[in-house]
Amino acid sequence: MIDIIDQINAIHREIGDRPVASGAGRSLLLRRVYDADIEDVWSACTEADRIGRWLAPIDGDLRPGGSFQLKGNAGGVILRCDRPELIKVTWGFGEGMVTEVEVRLAPAPGPDGGTVLELEHASPAEIVDELVRAHGPGGTIGIGGGWDLTLLGLDLYLHDTAFDPAALEDTPELKEFATRSCQAWGAAVQTAWGTGDDDLAAAVAFATQHYAPDATGDER
């Protein structure tokens, strides 16, 4: 069983501005602590056989300058790989949609150990602005919700290397997590952009429909 509330509250969510290679950019920032040492988290995020156990099967040349492709997901080029602290890649779903993802790792402060993971997904400002024009802030909320699911999968895998992501698909637990995730990203959008309550509710519902189509988005 997943402790949904703890998993939602484990992630810090933030929306802001971050330059990308092409100029001005917008970013989503996620931060959480994993109960695993930094080398274990690094290995899970960089070794093909382990990536396939919690994210998706991956093909490519996994070294700086090499390219990669996640099955049924994004592909790109590895820009930096500084063990065990930094991974930076381009992240593209198609022509004209190339963005950048940076993962930063650091030992967690305090006596309990663990690893702080920060994931920042930065996109050219024109891509985000067009997404918002087309779909309102729901598109941004949906991207954040997708990353929440990714970080959930990593946590479950680090606690149980026999974890099978397929076992969670279409389960009530996953739908509740996705619903609450979209609500949490809605709050981040409101903080960043001052979105009105009615527009925010519509945006959260739009994003929730993608990940949890049977949910209403009204759970508290």
Brief account:
This protein has about 220 residues and is an alpha+beta fold. The chain is about 40% helix and about 25% strand.
N-to-C SSE string, H for helix and E for strand: HEEHHEEEEEEHHHH
Strand pairing plus helix content: what structural class? Answer: alpha+beta
Note the overall shape: globular
User: Any low-confidence stretches, pLDDT <50, length ≥5?
Assistant: none
Amino-to-carboxy terminus distance: 19 Å
Q: What is the mean predicted local confidence, pLDDT?
A: 92
- The total number of structural domains is 1
CATH superfamily: START domain
CATH topology: Alpha-D-Glucose-1,6-Bisphosphate, Chain A, domain 4
Given the structure, what is the number of helices? 7
Order of strands across the widest beta sheet? 1-2-8-7-6-5-4-3
CATH domain class = Alpha Beta
Q: Give the percentage of residues in beta strands.
A: 25-35%
Q: Count the E strands.
A: 8
Let me know the largest β-sheet: 8 strands, antiparallel
Core attributes:
220 residues; alpha+beta; Alpha-D-Glucose-1,6-Bisphosphate, Chain A, domain 4; eight-stranded antiparallel β-sheet; 7 helices; globular; START-like_dom_sf
Please explain how this structure is put together.
- The protein is an alpha+beta fold and 220 residues long.
- It has a single domain, classed as Alpha-D-Glucose-1,6-Bisphosphate, Chain A, domain 4 (2-Layer Sandwich).
- Helices cover 42% and strands 26% of the residues.
- It has seven helices and eight strands, in the order H-E-E-H-H-E-E-E-E-E-E-H-H-H-H.
- The chain has an eight-stranded antiparallel beta sheet with strand order 1-2-8-7-6-5-4-3.
- Helix 5 packs across helix 7.
- The longest helix is centred in the last third of the chain and has 22 residues.
- The mean pLDDT is 92.
- Belongs to the AHA1 family.
- InterPro entries: ASHA1/2-like_C (IPR013538), START-like_dom_sf (IPR023393).
